[in-house]
Amino acid sequence: MLPPYASKAEKLARFGLVTVCLLVLLFLIIPVLVIIPLSFNSSSFLTYPMDGFSLRWYEELMSSQEWRQAFKNSFIIAPAATALAMIFGTLASVGLCRGNFRFKGVIMAFLISPMIVPLVIVAVGLYFFFAKLQLLNSYTGLVLAHAMLGVPFVVITVNATLQGFDNNLSRAAASLGAPPLTVFFKVILPLIAPGVISGGLFAFATSFDEVVVTLFLSSPSQRTLPLQMFSGIRENISPNIAAVATIMVILSVLMLLTLEVLRRRNEKLKIKQQ
């Protein structure tokens, strides 16, 4: 809020800033919100104005064998990949933060490289690597590939959480005779849990939305939701895609709310530590 003594120029600048922010917000949100009403359209075309309200596309979604299989694949691959990404990412972050060795920056760069390197290059490399290991067209290969894409998000969030961790707590536990594993599970992990879960949510979203790597590594029976949507857009734009998009938007909103709850919990923990 501006102070009562603010000049007209300051008030105009404030009004202009708020207006620009609202326009940018609308520019980002409207394309996402536009698709939601279309999923309830009774017409077979994704056009406005809508012909009427109907749940036929959700009914067709649930009755279609291809879409049910895509849902099943996504909810098999994404949670498994998220679990692996959380384990590997947390261990890597703890090792980088607590260890004193050379080339830590280089190792960190390699760990987050899947976020930087174009996905097509990653997909081609994984295709040839997994072909030698006979992991193509398998759930194991897809889970490992998606976990690799999710590890950087866990590393970054856990690393940021560990920056505010008080190492005196782990030293005190060790001085009382607690073994390293007990110190990690009883002292360190509960305090960095918000960062681990936040990274896990990002890893889940990355796996759930991934198309390129899945396109290279999966068989027709292992199509995930995004890949099924991509195939549907190429073949025929159906309102089923709008229904799936609406479900994915709802999942994204729930994850954002969870992240906000975790952020507030993390702030409370920091205040208690101080």
In summary, what is this structure?
By secondary structure, this protein is an all-alpha fold. The protein contains eleven helices and no strands.
Summarize the helices and strands and which ones pair or pack.
Elements: H1 8-38, H2 56-63, H3 65-98, H4 104-116, H5 119-132, H6 139-163, H7 167-175, H8 180-209, H9 212-217, H10 225-235, H11 239-273
Number of helices: 11
User: Could you state the order of secondary-structure elements as H and E?
Assistant: HHHHHHHHHHH
Give the number of DSSP strands.
0
What's the CATH first level?
Mainly Alpha
Question: How would you portray this structure in words?
Answer:
It is built from 11 helices and no strands. It is mainly α. The chain has a single domain, classed as MetI-like fold. It is globular and about 70 Å long. It starts with 7 loop residues before the first helix and ends with a helix.
List descriptors.
11 helices, single chain, MetI-like fold, 274 residues, globular, mainly alpha
